[in-house]
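We modelled the chain as a single entity of 458 amino acids. Its sequence is:
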Amino acid sequence: MMMEIINRTPAVTYLEICKAAIIPALLYYLSIFLLVHFYARRIDEMPELAFEGDGASDKRMPQANAEAVVAQAMSSGALSDPAVGSKAGGPVEQDKNDAAIISFEGLTFFGALGSLMVFLLLGSSPFRAVTYSLAFVMAMIFINPRTLASLSQRTLGFAVWIVATIVAHFFAPVASNWLDAMIWGMAATLVIGLLSSTWRRMIVAGFDTAAKGGIPLIVAAACVGIVIGLVSRTGIGTGVPQAIIPLAGNSLFLALLAIMGCSIILGMGLPSAVSYLLLATVIGPVFADPTLGVPILAAHLFIFYFGMMAMVTPPVALAAYATASIAGSGVMETGIAAFRFSLVGFTLPFMFVYRPELCLMAADGGPPEMLAVLLSVTAATLGVLALAGAMAGYLFSPLGWVLRLMLFAAAACSLYPDQASIGASRISVVDLIGAVILGFVMLASYRASKRLAVASSR
């Protein structure tokens, strides 16, 4: 959808979008990993703080009680131990196909996804790339022995596909190349397959599953179409840019905060593709103004990112609500916890707007210098580390509020759009200050952990 929506010369390519998204994605997963790791270490050393502020009504179940509950459930037949046997006392038989590491179904899934990416990288349009990848799925159906058709029927179907492809290539004017001819051959094979009762059941079932799976997206897209129509009719689509662009003239940071709020609100409760379509229509024109000075691809990644963060932002945090049903916890409590754990990720879009090198592009949208990329990635990594430690209250040992506030200050230095550098180097002064603060806190925490280790060994 970004390839279709972003209006830029030269056009945005699929590979360019992947390159721009890879470093922010890695930084986000690093932030989640660090925050969970620090929080778990803090709980391990300070169990009395395990549920502080989490909204949980009871403490953790002691290990002995947990084992007793599991043993009681197994003795009553509520659970079965695979090592002992099933509820009836017999051995548990496992399907060999389910135990296989590699299966045709897995190869079909990952092969279709991989072929889709390959065709996009080769320059095919999204529509053609999806259609070409469907041909791979169809080929896997023919060679999969678990397909509900005999070997002769599968061989005959594959032969019909090949013959129809050859005929289409030489006699159909629209099939100018073999890939297009393969698609026409696939369509002819499906039509001929309807004459067979075996293939007809599978084809009808496939169309039925595809239709049912597409209904939610189609309905959501239709609702977005209504919203877009209302936006264009009421003038909100032009009102939002007109309100934010003057603000950006005075402060880009305030403008980004306003865009963040709009993206989170408009992205609530929507699937990813529908959310981006709405955001690109309403907020996308804001970044077209040259006064912002933000590369257009980084700008669209910014609004898409915060549209997805609505999934963990109360009060409409759909992903957190689904997690609450799995964990058996309170809905709002889980939503708040999800927001707190993903708060580190809220800083990343600001980072790659102020530092477009994180998206592997220069400020003008062109290719960046490797030194600038290295410095930006280092500063962002240190900022993520500092903010994760500040949020969890732990580095090498539990942190007091003074050290946590110092970590918040170090993380803020990674966000500050400072252009001043040290002499002829490109090292930012503010980045260096943040690194020094982080180093001081890490040293203090490390020494505290050594003192605690010595005290516990006595």
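As a brief sanity check on the tokenised model: The first helix runs from residue 2 to 5. Residues 104-202 form one domain.
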